[in-house]
Amino acid sequence: MDWGIENRLSRLIKEDGRCQFLPIDHGYFQGPTSYLEKPSETIKGLLPYADGLFVTRGIVRSSVPPNCQTPIIMRVSGGTSIIGSDLANETLTTSIDEVIRLNATAVGISIFVGSDYEKQTLTSLAQLVNQCEPYGIPVMAVTAVGKELEQRTARYLALSSRIAAELGARIVKTYYCPQDFEKVTEGCPVPVVIAGGPKCETELEVFEFVYDGIQKGAIGINLGRNVWQNPHPVPMMRALNNIIHKNLTPKEAQELFEELSRSQ
Predict the structure, then answer these.
(1) pLDDT value at position 137?
(2) Which of 242, 30, 27 is nearest to 43 (CA)?
(3) What's the number of CA atoms in the CB half-sphere (13 Å) around residue 203?
(4) Gap between the Cα atoms of 160 and 126, Å rounded
(5) Contact 162, 102 (CB under 8 A)
(6) How far apart are CA 254 and CA 76, in angstroms?
(7) What residues in the chain have per-residue pLDDT under 70?
(8) pLDDT confidence of residue 196
(9) Integer CA distances (angstroms), 209 to 69, 175, 195, 197, 220, in order
(10) What is the total count of domains within the chain?
(11) DSSP helix, strand, coil percent of the chain (3-state; round to 5)
């Protein structure tokens, strides 16, 4: 592995081999999502506990302090909105020159395996890898499924994750599934991080699926709504951080969350 790629990955994935990314890129297709109306306020207080910030170039410029030391993972795919006909109809939106200009540590792109736009998004991933590798910039592939929630099975996620790795992604972000999730991580030769998906009903539910996913081979998480839409986002972020980096159990994380929430 080239030194540049290795150096950037070491900033995102800590010495314990784990990571906690904070995605606030939802506005690129959802607009001013609840609790993300003012991104700069949303990330305030959360950045110290994030190993990477997943964000679009527009929000980097407008809402992230220039002295921010948290590595930036820049989302570089898009082109559709939540009111459009199909969210899978994405393409590349950001040039490699822009990625370098904004000093991103890595880039992220969605792929929609099994959709009408499968070839388009997979080809975009391959093109992005071709553009980024000469500059030592790692690519994170996001195995998106759009509205087809029933596709979040181990078979589908393993297929999508493996294809992403085969096309050159250095990290794969994919959804957790309660059955056979280890088949997803074991079949993917690059690190897997867990996406958050829909907002959960309770904090304990989040802690349980994160803990289980880590035990089954994921190296970390990329959770947004289950953090910043929580009434106590910083305690939530810190509790998750302790599951990932200090191996807390879901019960211990719940106790920490409650303690931190009371002291706010």
Answers:
(1) 98
(2) 27
(3) 26
(4) 14
(5) no
(6) 35
(7) 146-151, 198
(8) 84
(9) 29, 10, 11, 11, 12
(10) 1
(11) 45, 15, 40
User: What SS3 state is found at 14?
Assistant: coil
* CATH number of the domain residue 106 falls in: 3.20.20.70
Question: Of these residues, 173, 216, 246, 251, which one is catalytic?
Answer: 173
Whether residue 253 is contained in a domain is answered as: no
> Which residues, including other chains, have CB under 8 Å from residue 131's CB and lie 6 or more apart?
96
Domain with 36 in it: 3-231
The conformation of residue 199, written as its DSSP 8-state character, comes to P
Name the helix (H) or strand (E) containing 140. strand 139-143
Torsion of CA 160, 149, 191, 253, to 10 degrees: -170
pLDDT score recorded for residue 209: 96
In a domain, 249, yes or no: no
Residue 244 forms part of a structural domain:
no
pTM (predicted TM-score) = 0.96
Residue type, 29: F
Would residue 37 count as lying in a domain? yes
Residue 244: the pLDDT is 98
Is 14 part of the annotated catalytic residue set? no
261 DSSP assignment: H
